[in-house]
Amino acid sequence: MARKRIYEIAKELAISSKELIAKLEEMGMPGLKATNTVDDDEYSLILSVYQEDVAVAKPKERQRKAKKKGVPRAPIISVLGHIDHGKTTLLDAIRKSHLADKEAGGITQTVGAYQADLHGQKITFIDTPGHKAFTGMRARGAMATDIAILVIAADDGIMAQTVEAIDHIQAADIPMIVAINKIDKPNADLKKVMNDLAQRGFTPEDWGGDTVTVPISAINNEGIDDLLEMILLVAEMEDLRADPDGLLEASVIESHLSVGRGPVATTVINQGTIHQGDCIVVGSTHGRVRALLNQKGEQIRKAAPGTVVEILGLQQVPQVGTPIEITKNITQARQIAASRSAKQATEHRIRAPLSVEDLFREVMEEQKLRLIVKASSTGALEAIHHELNSITVDSIELEFLHTGVGAVSESDILLASVVAKNCLVVGFGTKPGSKVTKLANREGVLILSYDIIYELVEEIERSLKQMVPPKYEEMKLGETEVRELFKVPGGVVAGCAVTAGKVASNAKIHVVRGNEQLFTGEIMSLRRFKKDAREVQSGQECGIRIKDFDSIQVGDKFIIFILKEVEP
Ligand code: GDP
Question: Residue 185 CA: which ligand 1 atom is closest?
Fold first, then answer.
């Protein structure tokens, strides 16, 4: 029986997969995904019902329903994965076979990003693969990527950096497409990769899960079209739109100093439009856009959402990941840039590395401690995981953002700095290098290193406990009954008989009248035979003055108690 995929049917009907899926849900076929298949009968049913529906709906109505704010824009894609799994080869293969606006014999330059084209639909690729670049951009506030491609070599499977990449993608909370590469190799094992993915909670769609997987061979140009098709599909589901007239949202994805052209910054426009002649601020540098160059190196007058452009005209080379802002005029641009440089200079001087106390204060606020743990071996990692999970302090939740074998790396620091402040990086049996330590100080990320698991667990437990405010419960000491009242300067003293237990001068007190508890406070003075007493026992009499409460009556009962700290 012929089976059709939802997106194929959507294409035939000339509607979006999203629209079709919504319609199918109305028809009583919920939970379908664009890549799911239907059989012949279902296919005919969909066609008949849908076409009827379309015929009935007035064309204008349909249009209005579909209209959302902004215009669709090209998705922006990053490629991540383990070293040597084929990220660069894949980016090259797409560039060679699908480069948009390609001219015969035209020179294509590498500018940090490029736009590919599939049946007239554009896809923008960030040309610097790897999670360090990916998270590095996010660390500076840029949200450049819409969808991540995770490359896994079919002959190697999920490796350390694959896991890292997955954690970085998840922290970014964007959709992921898995490209299973090198399927041409004799020892390629597609099933094993899919199995590994499933075991980690990423069940492939073909097996009924949510994870989109596409088998490819980057070197043989196999499956590339399928991959691009899948990207467009996922993008369509995300419904990426941008307002070309809106506020500019763009950040630097590559920058360098060119001998002839001065500082050059490449950017991908997420929203808004940048024009030649615009005055811009990029972090602490500024300038007037002298020229805009497209990916063929041609001068263009403006760049719309989804496009890649090189910007010339900045005063200095900006840092990768820095957002670009358009200002009213060059004076405003200069002023903003200058005030930022001044601020940066002072911040550098006063910024101290984050302390354990600061970190745990954040943890208390969020009720969550996020951890990135690196250890010298898998065994140690498992042990740490187990031990840390046994920590129970009040309602604090532990979340392992990323764990891996090896020393704490720059990308771990970047990940910690983008997710939140309440993130602790732990190195176990390894020491971070000086570059990593420097970056951690700059980003305000705390790294703790240990050699003994117990020390690590103890420190975390101790720090958490210190932060949890202690809990108290009342411990009753005794009871008294008010028999007489004595006026004294500024208040009243209750002459009491201790009817049970004892009264202590440092105790607290509930005043009870009938069935009602009138007041709770502290004993201000306790006297026996006109002398101050520390304690008065049951069967004896005493005078009690209560702090901030004088409306005592004969017959009132005092419950005497102390507060005792309870172990968390
Ligand atoms: P990266 O480190 O992830 O960027 O990996 P590269 O793109 O540099 O590829 C690493 C090696 O794998 C290179 O020698 C590539 O030629 C090879 N390679 C990449 N893709 C494929 C593929 O589809 N099939 C085969 N057989 N080799 C590939």
Answer: 26
| Ligand 1 atom having least distance to the Cα of 151 | 3
Handedness of CA 282, 171, 411, 191 (dihedral sign): negative
Same domain, 226 and 111: yes
- Cα(358) to centroid(ligand 1), Å: 44
pLDDT of the residue at 394: 64
Asked if residue 216 and residue 89 are part of one domain, the reply reads yes
How many Å is the Cα radius of gyration of the chain?
34
Domain with residue 460: its CATH number is 3.40.50.10050
pLDDT < 70 regions, the chain:
1-2, 50-68, 101-111, 139-143, 345-354, 392-394, 420-421, 467-470, 567-568
pLDDT of residue 527: 94
Q: Rounded distance, CA 116 to CA 96, Å? A: 9
The SS3 assignment for 367 reads coil
Closest ligand 1 atom to 222 CA? 23
Same domain, 235 and 259: no
Q: What separation in Å is there between the alpha carbon of 413 and the centre of ligand 1?
A: 28
| Domain-terminating residue out of 424, 445, 467 | 467
User: Which of 302, 296, 308, 229 is CA-nearest to residue 270?
Assistant: 308
Q: Name residues contacting ligand 1 (CB within 6 A).
A: 81, 83-89, 129, 181-182, 184-185, 217-219
Question: What are the tokens at 17?
Answer: 């997969």
* pLDDT value of position 61: 39
Number of domains in the chain: 5
Q: What is the pLDDT of residue 185?
A: 96
Same domain for 300 and 282: yes
Quote the pLDDT of residue 52.
Answer: 62
Instruction: Report pLDDT for 20.
Output: 81
Show the tokens assigned to 526: 């306790």
Looking at the structure, do residues 485 and 547 belong to the same domain, yes or no? yes
- pLDDT of res. 367: 80
Residue 428: which of 372, 368, 479 has the closest Cα? 372
Pocket test for ligand 1, best of 84, 88, 89 (most atoms within 8 A of CB): 89
Domain that holds residue 13: 4-66
Block residue for tokens 């204060």: 361
Ligand 1: atom nearest CA of 129 is 4
